[in-house]
Structure formats: structure tokens, C-alpha cells
Design brief:
The complex is a heterodimer of chains A (171) and B (677). With 171 residues, chain A is of the alpha+beta class. Chain A is built from three helices and eleven strands. Chain B starts with 6 loop residues before the first helix and ends in a 6-residue tail after the last strand. Chain B: It catalyses: ATP + protein L-histidine = ADP + protein N-phospho-L-histidine.
Chain lengths: 171, 677
């Protein structure tokens, strides 16, 4: 994700900043560029979809639209968690379609100086993981900055492959 | 009528009668609301009278004495107003409304085969008002005297001095017309209103005792030579042909004998030398067959299901074509099939659209009850309201109509309860004491807009904010950041209602959040605009047509799934004894056909032979064109569901056709049984 310009009217700020929505997953803190976040809604009834890929938790009714929701815990290999009221669904948009991502809790919107963001170290993240944009140090905390769009397109690519294989076997 | 033995036939007649009653009651309600504003409008009184009269006729034919008595008394009151110049007071209108409510209850009891409400109370109420004993004294057995039709068909034809001409009006009903006696009764009374009926065959008594044939002959005299009478008769339902002719030249004062014979009524007219071709009368064929037909909703649903089947076949045809095209020898055949499939697609798409259009109904269907509702509510709240409607001919899919009915009631209630101020308050604010509510509908691009506007107090964003904080929906801090528009939007939050105490009028547990949810289910939208002191405007944006599918809702492992009705042949309750095994696999034998039994739970987990533990029903269906019994835990009924996309991520799952949103707002997956296994 290219560094975003500061909002108009904030040009006087000397240091370039990034606004991120910070949320927790397990004991870790993650962040997403606020531009990727459409809306954050309380956790609600998620209806599982049979035969959907593992990382898809199910579908929700968002104002009359049916929207798939992904479980980021699953994506990152954390163990599954029972639904609790602190959880939130972060809605993002990929190619014009809304997709939700479940997170444990949303802590705050933070302004992070771009200088404090370091590129991801491949030792931790692995080479093929493009969806980690960097790691920001905020005080003593480390925040892993995610690119939601990439996570989803990644997932989508894998799904399409799986589904094609599945139908090839069937037919 | 004694044919209750023949219950089936009775039910059938009853159904037709009831649907007519519905229409008549709805019209009467509208007319009464109007009548309240213009109590001396003779045409309105006449309309109400006529509706009561028709219901009375139908009730008499079906042997429903209570209905006859009530409508008869109501008729009597109206007759006093109509012909004796009695003043129609507000109290009388209230009684008329009460009668209407009674009739509605009565009608619903009939429809549901339940015990009918006792008419005593309402009869007493009417009698109180029918002060003029003369008309009330009519016993029910003398019903019908209010119209100018001789009862027995044997009234002596008394030609007046200037020798009025007698005309014979022959009314032929459709041979398959149900409720023939009701129609004959209708024609006779209507004709009696526009002409002087001398006699008829069959007579009024015969008609009331169900002795009718499909031809009704009416002998009459009229200023306009019976033209109006013929026109009136033609307007009655199930009338196939109406002819009007000069009865006989000889009938004049010079020939009293002839008039005596006319009085002979039924059967006797053969005695007259009457050359029809030579008569000077003219024959009017009934040409107004109309451009519309009534179609049973079930038939439409069936057609829609069939179109669904066509679409599926088309898809499969394309697949076959693709397979054929791949192998060299058959590629020509493949091409041909592919072209055919393309054509089939165009045809089925058009067919589908045509059927969707046939499902359109005018908004009138739900609008008609609103004037009365508004009147009652306003009265109860001590408010004065002038209600206007426009655009009730705008058409919408019937599912959309069903879905917006409750929301509109709710919005209108709000407008009266929270919107319009009391007359005193209004005057104090420099407004006219009478508030105004308008219900408007119109087309806009590909949508239909329905708007409720009032000139009441408007929604105060500050009050809304306070209420939201008080109810713990938002914090002070969150509320402070809201714009006025955003604050007004808060009324759509679940659990929001500004009234301190739930009043009888609003606050029945449905809030604007339910309104929004309902609309979103059908891809609609609701917007609110309001200005403090000036009024509120609630607009519904509705789709013209919908991707609707009839589906069976089933339960499987605590989840609800929708299965297109078109793919289910039959539903059976599973009894233990029904299940056999064939090569170790469960199967059901139904009337000699073998259906492998697969549990839906197992199928969805791709472990198809695993039996669920709590399956109580089996759906007989086909998958990959093989017969199959699909085991489910429970059946939740059949519903029309709006098909929604689930997005690319979930669009290509085998056996999953899409999703829908159920009545209570949860999403549910729609299964494609053909590709389930």
C-alpha cells in the first residue's frame, strides 16, 4: 500500500502520518490503514455456508446485503474462538464487493508517523506473505500492519483453485 | 339453501362469495370515510346501500341468516337516509363502521370455518338508530322490499294512462357462472334502480330460493326505453349477453289482457306471439370482456417454478454442448445444441420477465384500508387529520406489497401519534387545527417510491440524541459528533423508540428498525427527512421486480436452508419402518419407487451416507437427475424468498445457489439440490 497523503488541512504537519485502525487478535495487535476500512460493526449472527473455504466463517445480513465474513484467527493459524461480545467485524471492500473480517476487539484509531514503520522481516513473516505491510512501533507495542485487500485476494485465489479442482473431480 | 350436504360445492360457492365480500367491504370502508366528510352525498349512500344489498343476497343464498339480518338492518337505515331524507349523523356513521367491523369478523369466521360472531350486539346497536320503526319492523323474510322489484313475479302490470312501452330485458349468464342466484339477484335489483320492473322470470322469490337458470327475463318500463337498464345489467359480473327488445306492441292500455299475461311471469311468455327477428328491439352483445383476467396466484407460482426449471435445463444443455464440442466427431452437434441453448435462454428470460410482470398488483390493494385506519387512530388520539392518497394505481410485485404493508401501517401510525399535534397545539403554533397526512406513490426510473408526509411536529434531533443516550445505545460523546441527519437516522436503531410509554397507537414492539429490515429483505430502502415544526417525510424506495424464488425452508443441524420448491416432488415424514437398506445403504420405497436416503447434514459435509440423528422428514427430489430422498430435521414452511448474491468468494460452491434473508433478518443459504451430491 503506498503511503497516503495526510488529509487536506493537515499539510502543516511536518511528519507524514498514517491513520490506522488497531485491533487485537489473541495477544497481538494488528493495524489496518483506515482507508481500507468501510465500517466496523458489532459481532452478529454469522450463518455458516456449507462447502465454503475454511477461512470463511459464514455470511451476515448487512442492511439487506449478504456479506461473507472471514475469520482472521483462522487465517493466521490462531485457534478458533467462541463468539464474544467484544468481537467486531471490520468491513472492507475489494473490487466493489464488501467483505467482513472478524477481529477480537477494536482498540482505537491511531496516528502513526510513517517513520516508525519498519518493513516486515522475512524471517517472521515468510517470503510469500505480501499482506503484511510493515511493523509499527508504538511505545512498547508492536503493531503488525495488514493489507486487508491482499489477504482477501490471496484467499480468493486459493478458493477459486480449490473450487475448480472440486468441480473437476465431480464432473 | 339446503345444499350444505354437498360441502365441497358449498365451500366453493362460499369462497367466491367471500372474495366478493372482501371487495365490497373494502369499497364500503372507503365510502364511509368519504361519507363522514360529506354526509349528504347521495351517490355514496347509494354505493354503500348497494354493497350491503349484494352481501345480503349472497348471504341469503348461502343460508347465512345472521349476515342477512345485519345487512338488512343496515340497509334500512341507509334507506331512510336515502329516500326519507333522514340526516346522516356522525353517530350513525360510527354505527355503520361498527357494522362493517362486524361483517369483517363474520367474513373471517366464515373463511376460517370458525364459529361466527353473534350478531345480537350489533343488531341492538343498529336498532337504536333505526328509530323509524316502520323500516325496522320489516321482518327479514320481507327483505328486498327496499328496491323496486316485485317479489313474486305476479304483480299485475298496471300500465299508466299514457301507455308506457314494456321492454323485455333478457340477461344470459355464463353457463359456468357460480352463484347464479346471487348474480340474478344483483341484476334484478340493479335494474330495479334504473327502471320500473314489472315482473321477472324467474321471480325474485324464486331467485332467493335458488330456483334459477342461466337466463333471466325482466319485463320493465323506463323513461329511456330501458337503455340504462341494459347497460347496468351488462356491468354485472358473469353476465354473458344482454338483449333488450320492445316486448309487444299489443301491450298497451288497449289490451289489458296482455298485461295480465305478462303478469303470469315465468314460463308463460311462450303464449305470446313474439317474432324475435321482427321485433324492433336491439341486441347488445356483451363486448366489454375487459383486457384483464384474474389468475390464481398458485398458477402464477407454478409458472414461475416452471420457468426456473427451464433455466436449469438450459444450463445443463450448455454443459452437454460443451462436452460434445470437445470431442471431434460430435462437435457439429455440439454447436447446434449450443445455439439451441442460447435461444432457450432468450425465451426463458423473456418468459420469466413476463411472469414477473403478471405478479404486479396496484398499491390500491393495501392502500384502501388506510383512510379508515387513519380516521380511527386520529379519533383515538384526539387529533384532526386530513388524509390524502395519490398514485394508488402504481404497480408492484405482490411480494413487495406484502412486505411493505406492515411498515406503511407503522409509519402512518407514527405520523398520527408522534407527528401531528393536537388541534390546540397546532393553533398555538399558527397552523390550521387539522393536520395533513399524504400517502403518495410514483415511479422513478427503475424504482417505485412510496412516501408518507405529514405537516406535524417533525423529529427533533436533540430529543433523539437524548433518547439514544438514555437507552444506552450511544454515549454522550458519540452523540455529540452526530449531524442532524445522522441523529434522525438513529430512529432506525434496534430498540429505539422515543415515546416514554408505549401508547395504544404506536409502540407495539415494531419499530423503525423492523421497517428497515423488512425493506432491505426485498432490496428496498427507507429514508427519513424531517424539519422541526414543519413535518416529516418518510420515503420507501422499492424495486419494480425481484429475483424471487419459492422455496421450502428446512432445518438441518439448527441451521435453516432454503430449497427451491420446484426441485421438491414430495415431502414425507420418515417413519422408522420406511427405511430399508440396499447394499448397506439406506433407501426409502415410495409407491414402488426406490429413493436412496441421504441426510442433508451428511451431504453438506460430503459424507453423504452418514445419517443424521434427528431427521424427521424426507424430501423426494432429484440430484444429478437421479431420484433421491433428502433427510432433514424439520420443515419450516414454504416462502417466497429473494435471491441474493454472496459475492465472488462464495459464488461457485457446488450445490449452493445463493442466499436469502429470512423474515426475522438472518441470512440463509439456498441449496441447488441438482448439484448437491
Amino acid at each position: 500500500m503506498p503511503a497516503r497523503e495526510a488529509t487536506p488541512g493537515r499539510e502543516t504537519v511536518i511528519e507524514k502520518e498514517k491513520q490506522i485502525v488497531a485491533f487485537s487478535l489473541g495477544s497481538e495487535t494488528y493495524g489496518v490503514d483506515i482507508a481500507q476500512v468501510r465500517e466496523i460493526i458489532p459481532i452478529q449472527k454469522i450463518v455458516p455456508v456449507p462447502r465454503a473455504p475454511d477461512f470463511v466463517e459464514g455470511i451476515i445480513n448487512l442492511r439487506g446485503r449478504v456479506i461473507p465474513v472471514l475469520d482472521l484467527r483462522h487465517h493466521f493459524g490462531f485457534e478458533k474462538k467462541k463468539q464474544d461480545p467484544d468481537q467486531r467485524i471490520v468491513l472492507t471492500e475489494v473490487d466493489g464487493e464488501s467483505i467482513g473480517v472478524i477481529v477480537d476487539s477494536v482498540s482505537s484509531v491511531l496516528r502513526i508517523p510513517e517513520a516508525s514503520i519498519e518493513p516486515p522481516a522475512s524471517v517472521i513473516t515468510g517470503d510469500d506473505i505480501e499482506y503484511i505491510q510493515g511493523i509499527a512501533k508504538v511505545g512498547s507495542n508492536l503493531i503488525v500492519l495488514l493489507d486487508l485487500t491482499k489477504i482477501i485476494s490471496d484467499a480468493e485465489k486459493r478458493t477459486l483453485k480449490e473450487v475448480d479442482l472440486a468441480s473437476a473431480v465431480v464432473r | 339453501m339446503n345444499d350444505k350436504d354437498n360441502y365441497q360445492e358449498y365451500r366453493q360457492d362460499l369462497e367466491i362469495f367471500l372474495s366478493e365480500v372482501d371487495e365490497l367491504l373494502a369499497n364500503t370502508e372507503e365510502n364511509l370515510v368519504e361519507l363522514e366528510k360529506a354526509p349528504s352525498d347521495a351517490a355514496l349512500i347509494q354505493e354503500v346501500f348497494r354493497a350491503m344489498h349484494t352481501i345480503k343476497g349472497g348471504a341469503a343464498t348461502l343460508g347465512l341468516q345472521d349476515g342477512v339480518e345485519v345487512t338488512h338492518l343496515m340497509e334500512s337505515i341507509l334507506d331512510e337516509v336515502r329516500s326519507q331524507g333522514r340526516e346522516l349523523t356522525a353517530e350513525m356513521v360510527d354505527v355503520l363502521f361498527a357494522v362493517l367491523d362486524y361483517l369483517r369478523e363474520w367474513r373471517n369466521a366464515l373463511g376460517g370455518d370458525k364459529e361466527r360472531p353473534s350478531p345480537e350486539k350489533i343488531l341492538a346497536k343498529i336498532r337504536e338508530f333505526a328509530g323509524n320503526e316502520s323500516s325496522v319492523a320489516h321482518s327479514v323474510s320481507q327483505q328486498g322490499t327496499s328496491s323496486a322489484v316485485p317479489r313474486d313475479g305476479s304483480r299485475t302490470v298496471d300500465l299508466d294512462g299514457d301507455g308506457k312501452r314494456i321492454y323485455l330485458l333478457t340477461v344470459r349468464f355464463k353457463s359456468d357462472a357460480p352463484l347464479l342466484s346471487v348474480r340474478a339477484f344483483q341484476v334484478l335489483t340493479l335494474v330495479g334502480e334504473v327502471s320500473e320492473v314489472l315482473s321477472s322470470a324467474p321471480s325474485l322469490d324464486d331467485i332467493e330460493n335458488d330456483r334459477v337458470s342461466d337466463v333471466l327475463r325482466i319485463y320493465l318500463t323506463a323513461e329511456d326505453d330501458g337503455k340504462e337498464a341494459a347497460r347496468t345489467a351488462r356491468g354485472v359480473q358473469d353476465v354473458a349477453e344482454v338483449s333488450l327488445e320492445r316486448y309487444d306492441q299489443r301491450v298497451s292500455r288497449d289490451n289489458p289482457a296482455a298485461s295480465g299475461s305478462v303478469a303470469g311471469g315465468a314460463g308463460n311468455e311462450a303464449g305470446f306471439s313474439r317474432d324475435e327477428s321482427a321485433s324492433q328491439g336491439y341486441t347488445v352483445k356483451k363486448t366489454t370482456l375487459g383486457k384483464t383476467v384474474r389468475v390464481d396466484v398458485a398458477l402464477l407460482d407454478f409458472l414461475m417454478d416452471m420457468v426456473g426449471e427451464l433455466v436449469i435445463d438450459r444450463t445443463r444443455l450448455t454443459q452437454i454442448a460443451t462436452r460434445l464440442q470437445r470431442s471431434g466427431e460430435t462437435s457439429a452437434v455440439g454447436n447446434e445444441i449450443r445455439a439451441l441453448a442460447a435461444h432457450l435462454q432468450r425465451t426463458s428470460a423473456e418468459l420469466q420477465e413476463g411472469i414477473m410482470r403478471a405478479r404486479l398488483l396496484p398499491l390500491k390493494n393495501i392502500f384502501t384500508k388506510f383512510p379508515r385506519m387513519i380516521r380511527d387512530l386520529a379519533q383515538r388520539c384526539g387529533k384532526q387529520v386530513e388524509f390524502e392518497m395519490a398514485g394508488e394505481d402504481t404497480e408492484l410485485d405482490r411480494t413487495v406489497l406484502e412486505v411493505i404493508d406492515d411498515p406503511l401501517i407503522h409509519i402512518l401510525r407514527n405520523a398520527i401519534d408522534h407527528g401531528i399535534e393536537t388541534p390546540d397545539e397546532r393553533v398555538a403554533r399558527g397552523k390550521p387545527p387539522k393536520g395533513r397526512i399524504r400517502l403518495l406513490a410514483w415511479h422513478e426510473e427503475n424504482q417505485v417510491l412510496v412516501r408518507v408526509e405529514d405537516d406535524g411536529a417533525g423529529i427533533d434531533p436533540e430529543k433523539i440524541k437524548k433518547a439514544a443516550v438514555k437507552k444506552g445505545l450511544l454515549t454522550e460523546e458519540e452523540v455529540r459528533k452526530l449531524s442532524e441527519k445522522e441523529a434522525i437516522e438513529l430512529i432506525f436503531m434496534p430498540g429505539f423508540s422515543t415515546t416514554e410509554k408505549a401508547t395504544e397507537v404506536s409502540g407495539r414492539g415494531v419499530g423503525m428498525d423492523v421497517v428497515r429490515t423488512n425493506l432491505e429483505r426485498i432490496n428496498g430502502h427507507v429514508e427519513v427527512r424531517s424539519q422541526v415544526g414543519l413535518g416529516t417525510e418518510v420515503t420507501l424506495r422499492l424495486p419494480l421486480t425481484l429475483a424471487i424464488m419459492r422455496a421450502l425452508l428446512v432445518k438441518c443441524e439448527d441451521l435453516t436452508y432454503a430449497i427451491p420448491t420446484s426441485s421438491v416432488e414430495e415431502v414425507l415424514a420418515i417413519k422408522d419402518g420406511d427405511i430399508r437398506t440396499i447394499q448397506g445403504k439406506p433407501a426409502m420405497s415410495v409407491r414402488g419407487r426406490i429413493f436412496p436416503l441421504i441426510s442433508l447434514a451428511g451431504a453438506l459435509r460430503d459424507d453423504k451416507w452418514k445419517r443424521g440423528s434427528s431427521e424427521r422428514y424426507a424430501l423426494l427430489t432429484r440430484t444429478n437427475d437421479e431420484p433421491l430422498a433428502l433427510g432433514v430435521d424439520d420443515l419450516l414452511g414454504e416462502e417466497e424468498v429473494v435471491v441474493k448474491e454472496m459475492g465472488r468468494l462464495l459464488s461457485r460452491l457446488k450445490g449452493i445457489a445463493g442466499a436469502t434473508i429470512l423474515a426475522q433478518g438472518d441470512p440463509a443459504v439456498i441449496l441447488d439440490v441438482q448439484r448437491l451430491i
